[in-house]
Specification:
The protein has 23 helices and 29 strands. By secondary structure, it is α/β, with parallel strands linked by helices. It has 5 domains: about 140 residues, 3-Layer(aba) Sandwich (Rossmann fold); about 140 residues, Succinyl-CoA synthetase domains (Rossmann fold), CATH 3.40.50; about 170 residues, Succinyl-CoA synthetase domains (Rossmann fold); about 70 residues, ATP-grasp fold, A domain (Dna Ligase, domain 1, 2-Layer Sandwich); about 110 residues, 2-Layer Sandwich (D-amino Acid Aminotransferase, Chain A, domain 1). Helix 5 crosses helix 10, helix 10 packs across helix 17 and helix 15 runs parallel beside helix 16.
Length: about 675
């Protein structure tokens, strides 16, 4: 259920507690900003010493204002914070912005204080941003309660860094973008990132949500909120390269990192994951454009070098630069001269200097081609009309013609369903500004333009798997040994070979009589059995089984062993299916090429668990070794449907058992006739 944050973003009145005339104090900066719109709502400045602040009479307390206050910004020493919160609530405040630091970020004692404050605020029916935050701003309601001014626009910025917010503003400025809202997340004691994403998704004046987060708190809830938003969410985060908290007692634990988890959550939820402020700005600029219908890009240039580099950059983003068909090439040949290349990349080969309108005619032809989903124009366009540095400067004949071409392009794009992205050596030239005003993102770097195309090619609905809800928690697993785990998975419909647990040679002979060989013998309660020599395969008969048992037991002395029917491996491929419980995102599934080479090959994919069978098949088809599933060199195709169903069942079990830190089936043998789990392991948290 979405929280009502009206009191936060559009309060009836505002008070700044800790307002100051001292420019070195944060209360001075916030008070200065608050006074930018005194006509929108009453703004009260409060300083314990009284007097005047910024030329206005300051109250000595919130109570001294003499009337209820809707929102209170608290910027006081941390020892006085609790009393200030109490005073704000007693004065009717329904929203508090806590600038004061010194709480959860300082350790357990600070966390305890912070939790008590948040509970008090919620009990009063109010909301709290922070503490330890840098304020908020809402340009749509003229609410300015941060230390800096943010250019108005349609991007809501939710950030754990003030400096990164300022850098993003500088990087968005060339694209003509600004902010609808800015919220410094702080410690998220009460109002969380999830609350803010949900509220900004419903905010009419916000078209995109930008997030910089170091601590997601409830990462899964964040992914769910983004997945249900009807607006793009762009995420920049730090610390993705460090290993997540885990026991690392399985291949799944050893291979799963924070980077994998965040990337999987973003892909499933349809979040645009970026790595730098510059990339975030590039993607946000692109998202003002119409989306592409597919991943096929036509590269159009006025120089071979620019075209080749751009094509490489586009393909590096996972997009295609296909050769144009005969009809499209014939159409282009009709508007270009003989030496122009029309295959893709399409190269004017100098024609632009003779006729700048050739840019417009070529782009129009490319946008009309059936085999093209988007166009990247790269190179010199903009240089003819550039004020300086171009082939003659402003006012020259070529410059005027280039401006005409830009206006022609802008008019055509208004009727085209396909996007155009531009990289120019002169991105701020008059011609490029014409395109920018028409909604075309113009980039200085070709890698930014290519990244923009990837953002436009990501279908905001069909391209996301979504976040499957967690199932109701099942009765806790108490027997997490090898056969206990097998029984749990078998009850969920996962197929295993026949097996019996034994602890003596007599029991071994009894198991051998229950099913025919060949046999497998496994030493139980041994970590990574294969590496320890605790697995013997293909034992043809009872005598071979007994001999293997005696040798293995003399060497390992395991308390028990498993005797199993040997599966037919001849036409199968071994996969791994694992689930690792992340402290922020909950259960995370891993599927990939399995067996003893799992960690060596590292051909794996991740998703938030549980995973549906349809999503599981997508993950399997995306592996580097996916061709093996369809049969190679005369081998039959495998039953991928059965493998995907097994993934669904395994991940559903793990998601229903929060006490399981890791659950792994390795290998899962996929053959032409089905899927069979050959080994499993569970680690309790």
């Amino acid at each position: 259920m979405r929280r009502d944050l009206t009191a936060l973003f559009d309060p009836a009145s505002v008070a700044v507690l800790g307002a100051s005339d001292d420019p070195a104090k944060y209360g001075h900066a916030v008070a200065s900003q608050a006074l930018r719109a005194p006509g929108r709502r009453p703004v009260h400045l409060v300083n314990r010493r009284g007097g005047t602040v910024l030329g206005r009479t300051a109250a000595t307390s919130l109570t001294g204002i003499g009337e209820p206050v809707g929102l209170v910004v608290i910027s006081v020493p941390q020892a006085a914070f609790e009393d200030s919160v109490e005073e704000a609530l007693s004065c009717g405040a329904k929203a508090i912005v806590g600038i004061t630091a010194g709480f959860a970020e300082t350790g357990e004692h600070g966390l305890t204080r912070q939790r008590a404050i948040a509970e008090r605020v919620r009990a009063a029916g109010a909301v709290l941003v922070g503490p330890n935050c840098l304020g908020i701003a809402d340009n749509t309601t003229e609410l300015y309660l941060a230390s800096d001014t943010f250019t108005p626009g349609a991007v809501a910025l939710l950030s754990q860094s003030g400096n990164l917010a300022l850098e993003l503003q500088l990087r968005l400025d060339p694209y003509g973008l600004g902010f609808s809202r800015f919220v410094s997340l702080g410690n998220q004691a009460d109002v969380t990132l999830v609350d803010l994403v949900a509220d900004c998704a419903a905010h009419e004046q916000t078209r995109a949500i930008a997030v910089y987060a170091e601590d997601f708190a409830d990462g899964r809830a964040f992914a769910e909120a983004a997945a249900t938003a009807d607006k793009p969410v762009v995420l920049l985060t730090a610390g993705r390269g460090t290993a997540s908290a885990r026991s690392a007692k399985s291949h799944t634990g050893a291979l799963t990192t924070s980077a994998d988890v965040v990337a999987a959550a973003c892909r499933d939820a349809g979040i645009h994951l970026v790595h730098t402020p510059r990339e975030m700005a590039a993607v946000l600029a692109a998202l003002q454009e119409r989306p592409a219908r597919g991943r096929r890009v036509a590269v159009f240039t006025d120089g071979g070098g620019h075209g080749s580099i751009a094509a490489d950059a586009v393909e590096a983003e996972g997009l295609a630069v296909p050769e144009l068909g005969a009809d499209a090439q014939r159409e282009l040949s009709g508007v270009l001269w003989e030496q122009s290349a029309v295959g893709n990349p399409v190269d004017l080969a100098g024609m632009g200097e003779q006729d700048p309108m050739s840019y417009a005619r070529s782009v129009q032809a490319l946008l009309a081609a059936d085999e093209v989903d988007a166009v990247l124009m790269t190179g010199y366009f903009g240089g003819y009309a550039a004020a300086e540095g171009g082939l003659g400067g402003a006012g020259n004949v070529l410059g005027a013609a280039e401006l005409d071409a830009a206006h022609t392009l802008a008019a055509h794009l208004a009727r085209s369903p396909k996007p155009l992205v531009v990289q120019s050596m002169y991105p701020r030239s008059p011609s490029c500004q014409v395109l920018s005003r028409a909604g075309v993102p113009v980039y200085e770097a070709v890698e930014d333009a290519a990244r923009a195309l990837r953002a436009l090619a990501a279908d905001p609905v069909a391209g996301r798997a979504g976040v499957t809800p967690l199932p109701t928690a099942a009765a806790p697993l108490t027997d997490a040994d090898y056969h206990g785990t097998r029984r749990l998975l078998e009850a969920a419909g996962v197929a295993f070979p026949a097996a019996r647990e034994i602890s003596s040679e007599v029991e071994l002979l009894g198991a051998a009589a229950e099913f025919a060989g060949p046999y497998v013998l496994k030493a139980l309660h041994v970590l990574h059995k294969s590496d320890a020599g605790g697995v013997a395969l293909g034992l043809p008969d009872r005598d071979a089984l007994v001999a293997a048992y005696r040798t293995m037991h003399a060497r390992l002395g395991a308390p028990s062993y498993s005797v199993e029917a040997m599966a037919d491996l001849s036409d199968g491929v071994e996969l791994i299916v694992g689930v690792n419980r992340d402290p922020r995102f909950g259960p995370v599934a891993m599927v990939g090429l399995g067996g003893v080479l799992t960690e060596t090959l590292g051909d794996v994919a991740f998703a938030l668990a549980p995973v549906t069978a349809a999503h599981a098949e997508q993950l399997l088809r995306g592996l580097r070794a996916a061709a093996l599933l369809d049969g190679v060199r005369g081998r039959p195709a495998l039953d991928v449907t059965a493998a995907a169903l097994a993934v669904e069942r395994i991940t559903q079990v793990a998601a229903a058992h929060p006490e399981i830190a890791e659950l792994e089936v390795n290998p899962l043998l996929v053959s032409p006739s089905g899927a069979l789990a050959l080994d499993s392991r569970a680690v309790l948290g």
